[in-house]
Write a structure and sequence with these properties.
The chain is elongated, with a radius of gyration of 17 Å. The relative contact order is 0.12. The protein contains three helices and ten strands; from the N terminus they run αβββαβαββββββ. By secondary structure, the chain is mainly beta. 9% of the residues lie in helices and 35% in strands. The chain has two domains: 9-68, no CATH class; 79-139, Roll (SH3 type barrels), CATH 2.30.30.
Length: 150
Amino acid sequence: MVRPLTDDPDRRWIPGAVFLSDQDPPVPHTVTGAAPYRDDLLVEFAEITDRSGADLLKGTSFTIEAAERRDLDDDEFWPDDLVGCAAVDEAGTPIGVIEAVEFGAAQDRLVLRTDAGRFEVPFVDAIVPTIDLEARVVVLTPPAGLLDSP
């Protein structure tokens, strides 16, 4: 079962399409079949031949080669472009580092690692007003209590 986070799942999740896993190093997986199931897709990969192999992929994210991606609008970002960015407050004081982007039904969240722990920050304009990919900096304006010890 795959939750497609794409602009065009009918065009992307087709037999022969190759996706890279989020493993290090990434592992290619070739789609042999895909069918809608509720809000997700039931996907068959050529490299996965049994249930135990499929179970090993639970929680895995898949991406396509960067060259295959569409051009983004100014206010859009690829999740992997945000990972590793420094998080600072509006004065430029370091807060932590973005470790991941979590996708949610209501809103996405930035996973932030600080000296105090790991936090999920709602990825909304009010809390994430500025992203400078060139400088690799994300400005945060967290409400009181959001970054208190977990």
